[in-house]
Design goal:
Number of strands: 6
Bound molecules: zinc ion
Structural class: alpha/beta
Number of domains: 2
């Protein structure tokens, strides 16, 4: 079995807090590098979910040699259900060295869309800047202030952006809030399109046009869903 050892120098950005991003990873037949301490009970649903992701997301993950581990806790060390870590500013794929941490609370019906969401960050960040800009323009033109985002989580990011728009126009905080909203909105929309039941237990009715977003995700970022 092909293994890789990730040392502190390979992910200098992991720091002391994220030691679980280091160590031994074994290449699973699915194409994921799984942490050697992953239990069979966790490995099976992860591999099953990953193997049915949109093919371009699988291909991208394999191209980047994505590693994955399961957190010993309900949430990840970043206090989310799942988290993707990487050196996003690195020049080549090897140095980007992305890693997905799956919290124990992720296991259940939404495991697959959680993985879609995290790997969509990799899709977003690896697109040419013109592609991201096209999608940003699309979001600005098609999302009204009164709209309800695709999920409650995406909506909270949208509201934060709107509050900055009023409180701090033209500031760094506004640009930052806008970028966070757009990227999280992108990932939540891809997850919802890949798995329509995603977060269906949430008491939430979105008003954004999902089909139109699907068209723009395809056109601007070339992701087929
Ligand atoms: Zn996210």
């Amino acid at each position: 079995m092909k293994t890789k050892i990730i040392r502190p120098s390979d992910r200098y950005w992991a720091g002391k807090r994220f030691q679980n991003l280091l160590g031994y990873f074994e290449l699973d037949p699915s194409g994921l590098y799984l942490s050697s301490d992953i239990s069979e009970e966790h490995r099976l649903p992860i591999v099953e979910a990953f193997s049915t992701l949109p093919p371009q997301l699988i291909e991208l993950s394999c191209g980047y040699e994505l590693t994955l581990n399961v957190s010993p806790f309900g949430n990840t060390f970043s206090e989310n259900v799942c988290t993707i870590y990487a050196d996003w500013d690195a020049r080549d794929r090897k140095a980007v060295s992305p890693h997905v941490e799956v919290g124990r609370s992720a296991f259940g019906t939404d495991l697959k869309p959680y993985l879609v969401h995290e790997i969509s960050h990799l899709w977003w960040r690896s697109r040419p800047s013109e592609a991201r800009e096209l999608y940003r323009q699309f979001l600005l033109e098609t999302t009204a202030d009164t709209d309800r985002e695709v999920t409650h989580y995406a909506h909270r990011k949208f509201e934060h952006y709107l509050s900055n728009l009023i409180g701090a126009p033209r500031s760094f905080a506004l640009r930052n809030a806008r970028e966070i909203w757009m990227e999280e909105s992108f990932c939540e929309t891809v997850a919802k399109l890949a798995v329509p039941d995603y977060k269906s237990d949430e008491d939430w009715t979105a008003t954004i046009d999902l089909a139109r977003r699907q068209g723009s995700i395809d056109q601007a970022t070339k992701l087929k869903l």
